[in-house]
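subagent[fold] <- orchestrator: predict structure for attached chain, return tokens only, no commentary.
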Amino acid sequence: MSATDLQASKLGTKEHWDNVYEEELQNFEEFGDEGEIWFGEDSVDKMVNWAVQNVPPKNDLSILEVGSGNGTLLFALAEAGYAADTLLGIDYSDGAVGLASSIAKSRNCEGIRFHRCDFLNDEPPVLTGKHTVDGGAWDLILDKGTFDAIALMQKDNHGKAPVDSYPIRVARLLKPGAHFLITSCNFTETELQEKFMTPTTGLHYHSRIQYQTFTFGGKSGSICSSIAFVKPAVT
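subagent[fold] -> orchestrator:
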């Protein structure tokens, strides 16, 4: 489904996510419930496995998750051997940042940074001691459902969809030779390639993550799609 076919929804509003994470933070403080795992544990495991195989842990990495929510994906990366100080999660909801930070403390993962940041309008902070290369600061950028949520935002007064500015921001923040891994339930693999592989972004297809497929009405598909893109290295 293309972004133009998607109808604006409360899932594309900051108010909705502020309310969700306010409730989840309260539940965590009272019952220790860390909250919902967006797209389920299987998607987290598959994204972590892809990262380990393609961007293995090193002390000089910089890894950014856009829309980190309760931090589940970054905690899984830390468990897989990635140093906490190489990981940054950003979210535009203060409640999400508060929840993820509280969970990090309970897991003794306080080295993972969580920062409030509106990705479409703000610059994510560069990790301490890290540097930019040709304007890019990140070796790997991750998205698990955030592009989907942004695609459900209201268009502006000129009829422009906020999601349209997302791919170029990702491309600009990547170091040359770096990767972007996205998991979506609203867009097919072909649609994601059309969105991110453009002359403006300069991104190339790298690989895909295989999910269980289902057949209905003579057509086959999966619940979600995961595609990795790479920013060409400087030659």
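orchestrator: received. Logging for downstream: DSSP finds seven helices and nine strands in the chain. Strands lie at 63-66, 87-91, 113-116, 138-144, 174-184, 204-209, 213-216, 219-222, 225-230.
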